[in-house]
Each structure stands twice: as structure tokens, then as C-alpha cells.
Design a protein that fits this description.
single chain; mainly alpha; 2 domains; 14 helices; 2% strand; acyltransferase activity
């Protein structure tokens, strides 16, 4: 998901440098920053000190609805889509480069899936109950399909596929009867997507907390591809050389607002729902992501406000590494057991949390501080890598 673009020299005049030819560099600092903020948010919400004490915005909606936390994953897939355009646009027009591009896309997708599958296995390596799908696995699948669509399709075809995936998913989820459950419905365990997960993945290989369905399941991956295609379309718009940067920003806000409104209208009969990745959710989250990227683009790449960006750029250029390490390190520390004041054997994370944080803060603030500490620690590591130009491309 890394791009290979150059940053405009700091000495270049800001307003004058953004011309009709859009001479802004090929590497968007704003895209790295947006990606970095998104990954930092992922780490924040995944590492509370206590899952029983979490501020409401840092929790997922129970079912229908959307919290700020529910926006993190679609934002990342949207960014994947934008990055695809910047990464392979140079190979798109030369068909002789397509075989090499497809090979590279396939290898990267397999790496992402393998990393996610490894995290599902680690540290028990129990293949009988391992969760087959997950966050990194979905990123890998979506990256593969969205990249191939972009490489082999023109803009009109991409728009047609983007809409078709959303409409077909809506029709399937709302009108196809569910075997063993009766008429189509959108309830957690009796909807069509859950039935397909149980049929193909089986209950042994779905999300452990639900057992009977998977929030990164098979059917809901289809609209997730549309989330990435949303990003692809925005990336195509941002790469246009016949539109100046200011007009790009204005129209990104317009497109974003239109998508948000469309998502809220569709929500009235196909509720916004992250676990089902509903079509209304794709439009709503995609619209917000477009507006957020437009704001970053305007402030950072056009106006040149880069003073605060380095920590997030560090996260952004090593996004998958940061996410992978955040889970791998935590799971590894769980293996280290210590005896607490009550004589109980607990993992070292809980031991330190109970000893160093819990006594000094309210339960909900202690939980938040624990999560913030993890973000700061990972940020320090990413800054260390960034300063030494260590970028691990997955």
C-alpha cells in the first residue's frame, strides 16, 4: 500500500505551485498522514486496558448504526483503493507491463492474507479452530480484486462494478430466503451472510466471539470491495492533470457529501451496519473518508502545513507493519505470566495494568490510558524506523 511518489520541495511556493498541470508531487504526504491516523486509531481501539470500560466512541455499534470506531476499517480500505491508483497507474496504460503487475499484486495479496492467518494461529497454532478470515485477510482479498479491476478496467466500468456490487448485495441480503431461517432478514445469526459463513467456513473457523458468523465473512467482502473501489475512483480524480488542485478538493467535498446523504437515505431501508458491511455503510463511510482525505490534502499538500505530520507519516509508510506488530507483541506478552498481589497467575500486561495504571485513574480512564500508551509505544518504534528509512513493504 505504499506509493512511490515524490514530495514537493519545502521551498516551493504553495499556492502558485498548484497549477493546472497539478505539479504536486507524485507522493501525497496527505495520503500517508491519513493512513497513519487510521492505523493509530486501529491500535487505539484494539488495545483498551479493559473491554468492560470503554468510552462509547471507541466501541463498535452493537449492531445497526455507526460509531467513530466503525469508520476505521472502511477508511483503511478506502485508502487502499486510493493507493492502488498511485502505485500502479504507470503500468495500467502499457499492457506489456500487466503480467508483472498482476504477479506483484497477487504476491502482495498472499502476503497480507498469510500475515492475517498467522496472527489467527499465533500462539496456539490450532488449525482445527483457527479463524480463516480477519482484518488482514480481508485487506488482502480486497486489494487483489480492486487492483485487478483498476488495472483492467476503464473509469466507467469501475463505476458500474462499484454500484453493481452494492445493488446485488442489497438484493441478496433483503430478498433471498435464508435456508433454515425463512425469509430474508438482517438479524445477526439468521441473515444470508451468516448462513454462508456457517456453510463454507463452518462454526469452527469463524470469529470466536460470535461462533456463528464472521464480521469479515465471505459475502460481506463483496461490498467491502466497493469500499476500495470508492477509493480507486477518488484516486483517479486526484491524479487527473486537467483539473487544478483547488477544484479537486472542492469536488471531493461535494462527492463526499453526496455519498453521505445517499448512505443515510439508503440506511432507512438497508441499515448502516459494519458487521454486515451494508451498501448504505459503504456510501456513508466512503463519503466521510473522501471528505477527510480532501481536508488532509488541502491542509498538508496544498497549504503546506506539515509540522505535525511526521508521527503519522511514520505510521502511514509502515501501516501494515504497525498493525501486525501491535497484535503480535500483545499476543506474545500474554504468554508471560506473573503472580499478582492476590496470588493469581496473570499475563504481564494485566499485571502491569493493575499495578501501574488502575490504582491512579477511574476504570474508564485507566482503560483509555492503557490504549494510548500502546499507540505511543508503536509510534516511537515507527518513528525510529522512519528516521532510518526502514520501510517494510508487504
Amino acid at each position: 500500500m505504499q506509493t512511490s511518489e515524490k514530495i514537493i520541495p519545502e521551498s516551493a511556493p504553495r499556492a502558485q505551485s498548484i497549477t493546472k498541470q497539478d505539479k504536486l508531487s507524485h507522493r501525497l504526504v496527505s495520503l500517508d498522514v491519513f493512513r497513519g491516523i487510521t492505523v493509530a486509531a486501529m491500535i487505539l481501539v484494539n488495545n483498551p486496558g479493559s473491554w468492560s470500560h470503554i468510552y462509547a466512541p471507541l466501541e463498535h455499534a452493537h449492531w445497526n448504526g455507526c460509531t467513530p470506531t466503525d469508520l476505521i476499517f472502511p477508511f483503511f480500505l478506502f485508502i487502499v483503493g486510493v493507493s492502488i491508483v498511485y502505485a500502479i497507474s504507470g503500468k495500467k496504460d502499457d499492457i506489456t507491463l500487466h503480467p508483472a503487475a498482476i504477479k506483484s499484486i497477487a504476491i502482495r495479496s498472499l502476503k497480507l492474507f498469510a500475515l492475517g492467518f498467522f496472527l489467527s494461529l499465533y500462539p496456539k497454532f490450532n488449525f482445527e479452530t483457527v479463524r480463516i478470515l480477519g482484518v488482514l485477510q480481508r485487506i488482502g482479498i480486497v486489494f487483489l480484486v480492486a487492483s485487478l479491476i483498476y488495472l483492467k478496467s476503464d473509469r466507467k466500468t469501475i463505476i458500474w462494478l462499484f454500484g453493481s456490487f452494492l445493488v446485488v448485495y442489497y438484493l441478496l441480503m433483503n430478498f433471498m430466503p435464508v435456508p433454515g431461517a425463512g425469509p430474508a432478514n438482517l438479524e445477526p445469526e439468521t441473515n444470508l451472510a451468516a448462513w454462508i459463513d456457517r456453510l463454507i467456513l463452518t462454526t469452527n473457523h469463524t470469529w470466536a466471539l460470535s461462533k456463528t458468523w464472521d464480521p469479515e465473512g465471505l459475502l460481506s467482502t463483496v461490498p467491502a470491495i466497493s469500499t476500495a473501489l470508492f477509493g480507486v475512483l477518488v484516486g483517479i480524480w486526484m491524479k487527473r492533470k486537467d483539473v487544478d488542485a483547488v477544484n479537486k478538493v472542492v469536488w471531493m467535498f461535494v462527492y463526499g457529501a453526496a455519498a453521505i446523504v445517499a448512505g443515510l437515505i439508503w440506511d432507512m431501508f438497508f441499515p448502516i451496519n459494519k458487521s454486515l458491511w451494508t451498501s448504505s455503510y459503504v456510501l456513508y463511510a466512503g463519503g466521510l473518508a473522501t471528505a477527510a482525505l480532501a481536508l488532509c490534502y488541502w491542509l498538508i499538500d496544498i497549504q503546506g502545513h506539515k509540522q505535525f505530520t511526521k508521527p503519522f507519516v511514520a505510521f502511514g509508510v509502515n501501516a501494515i507493519t504497525a498493525f501486525f506488530l501491535s497484535a503480535f507483541i500483545v499476543k506474545t506478552l500474554w504468554l508471560i505470566k506473573l503472580t499478582n498481589a492476590k496470588g493469581e497467575q496473570v499475563n504481564i500486561l494485566k499485571y502491569l495494568y493493575d499495578l501501574c495504571i488502575v490504582p491512579y485513574f477511574s476504570p474508564i480512564n485507566a482503560s483509555l490510558i492503557h490504549a494510548l500508551i500502546w499507540v505511543v509505544l508503536l509510534m516511537a518504534l515507527m518513528l525510529f524506523m522512519y528516521k532510518r528509512k526502514i520501510i517494510i513493504k508487504v
